[in-house]
Amino acid sequence: MIITPEVLNEQKNDFTIIDIRSNEERQNFPLLGLDTILSSFDQNIDVAGKKVLICQFGIVTEGMIIEKKINNAFSLLGGAQAWAEYYNENEDLSRWARQTVLPEIGIEGQKKLLNSHVSIIGMGGLGCPVAQSLVIAGIGKLKLIDNDIVSISNLHRQPLYSFEDVNKKKILAAKSKLKILNPEVIIETDDTFFDDINGEELLFKTDVIIDATDNIKSRQKIDKISKKLKIPTVYGALFRFEGQVSILNVNGSPGYSDLFPSSNTNREDSCADAGVLSMLTAIIGNIQALEAIKLIVGINNNLIGKLLMYDGMNHKTEVIEL
Amino acid sequence: MINVKVKCFSQVKYALGVDVLTFEVDENTTSIDLEKIIRERAGEKLNDVSLRIAINQKYQKEEIALQDGDEVVFIPPVQGG
Predict the structure, then answer these.
(1) How close B24 comes to chain A (CA, Å)?
(2) Shortest CB distance from A265 goes to which of B73, B76, B81?
(3) Structure confidence by residue, pLDDT tens digits, A195-217
(4) How many CB pairs under 8 A join A and B?
(5) Backbone φ and ψ of A61, nearest 5°
(6) Does residue B80 sit within a domain?
(7) What is the CATH number of the domain that holds B18?
(8) What total number of domains does chain B contain?
(9) What is the predicted ipTM?
(10) Rounded Cα distance, A175 and A185, in Å
């Protein structure tokens, strides 16, 4: 069983609190505000009554309770790391414990995500998985831009929509599903068609743009405004079993117009004409979300100045330096 | 003569029907020459498709002379989303 820092704080007098960490961890991350008894992973926990076990990140204690069949025991979600954040900042970040345990993310990275503002242009095959992944990862504010309505032919690859949403505005259907996933996320919606005239206003104060559109003209318009406003764009595009992803326009790094100075293609290359599987939209959309997260948190191993080409048929990838 | 390997993606892959092609070409062959060879082999299927080129995982803005063993990727714009 699991308990969050917030609930533990409210009910701490009802529990025996057992710290199983090493002396070094206890010294570096003291459990302020909690009366604890000390134990370790190797020792048997023979304390009667309700107890909370605390390790550094909340992972060891979860396994320990199951493995040793400890009765009436709870593991503190996010461990001492989450408790310290709650105690010092009155902010319970424990729901993201499994990603804050990553040293590349940590509590500081999670705070950056919670304070970030991402705009997604296009809530179709790519926009749905991007939005879904960003919302559950804890992005603070999301703007959804699309003027389309849900049609039956969207349902096989756009998992935020169901039959009951057919003929509804995509942005509104998406917003209601996303709010279920994370009620705390702020979601703005705009049902206008993104263009040169409204683009600047739509993207005002955005930290990252997600290009999840489905045509080259829109991609060119996004690039123009991304360059002008100096807001990075995470570009994603699909062709049958394949996709491309890049982070464009970061401090003068190449943009879409640098990558494709002339970008003619066949009309038949769109998803509607060429066909697409939902697995490909999910793969490419999630790579876009991953790159957006890396960009916001400040993880340098990313796709700035690079183009990823992925072929889902043979699983070959090519990363090209732009 | 030199050998170059072309890794095919997207419209290029569908136009040529293969993932990888190896060409034996003259020593003075350039990237633009190779694009012409590819377009000729694809027939009309790439007529309306702009292609950019990467050699050994590096994007090339200008025409460049090919070297023996080069790996070439033609990059078409793709639009689906």
Answers:
(1) 23
(2) B76
(3) 888 999 999 899 999 999 999 99
(4) 103
(5) -70, -35
(6) no
(7) 3.10.20.30
(8) 1
(9) 0.96
(10) 10
